[in-house]
Amino acid sequence: MREVRLANITRGTVLAERAVVAETTASRRRGLLGTDSLAAGSGLLIVPCRQVHTFGMGYPIDVVFVDEAWNVKRVVHGMKPGRLGALVMRARAVLELPAGKAAETGTLVGDMLDARDIAISATGIFPAIDHVNRYVTDLDRHVAFYMEALGYVVIGRGVKADGSGYAILRGREHELFISERPHDEAADKTVRHIGYAVEDVGILLERLKESGIAGEETEIVEEKFSRQFYLRDPDGNEIDFIEWTDKQGFYDDLNRG
User: Fold this and answer.
1) Domain ranges (residues) in the chain
2) Cβ(107)–Cβ(64) under 8 Å?
3) Contact 132, 174 (CB under 8 A)
4) Are β-strands 238-244 and 191-197 bridged in parallel, bridged antiparallel, or unpaired?
């Protein structure tokens, strides 16, 4: 897991020189379980998070709750083992520190922290770019360009129902879906959509509806190898949020085709 430095901008102090970032489901559930102590200068940043517990732990910790702008919303000093903390609804992340560190740094509610390498979304969910789907004028030329210039690998190629050719290329931790522009599409339209991978599209859609970003009519589409839904950004560009249920099956199906 990656580590970040967390400072209190308001007080000019450093909360953690090396805070481990727990941003996957497994790492968030594990937290500090199985550890004997938190070393000086260390910490655990749980993203997203609104509530913590210390069941199964053998030492006290300080807990700092922050919102999406890194404003401190609550500080708990010396939380003892075997306790369930309060649910802080306005929090988006939690920093767990050695007991006494919050007082030592003078950290108070209202302070602003600095964590340049970590973004916190209003939904508490952090999608990663999974693919870009775009139109091209010459499929062969674009396939050659992305392979030769950028090292992409072709993992699928064929013809769509409308007769236009397509290719799927794998890059570093993402795919590029390119296809010939249909005759009924505007000539200036190049990007069809950007796809973001999320762990659970159901939770994300629920939170987007609660925040008013997604309309009640937005629905999840159940595909053979994925679950997904679509939104449009303020300029009307389409965004695909996808939860892969069997991505390897998707690749295998492409190869069989």
Assistant:
1) 3-114, 128-256
2) yes
3) yes
4) parallel
Distance of CA 96 to the CA centre of its chain: 20
- pTM given for the model: 0.55
Domain 128-256 classification at class level: alpha beta
Could you give the C-alpha distances from 32 to 95, 185, 252, in angstroms and in order?
Answer: 11, 53, 38
Beta-carbon contacts of 67 under 8 Å, excluding residues fewer than 6 positions away, are: 73, 90, 91, 92, 120
- Per the listing, tokens 């560009």 go with 237
Q: Give 15-41 pLDDT, tens digit per residue.
A: 999 999 887 778 888 899 989 999 999
Q: Would you call 171 exposed, middle or buried from its count of C-beta atoms within 10 A (0-12, 13-18, 19+)? A: middle
**Strand-pair partners of 193:** 133, 238
Query: What's 3-114's CATH class?
Result: mainly beta
Handedness of CA 22, 25, 29, 35 (dihedral sign): negative
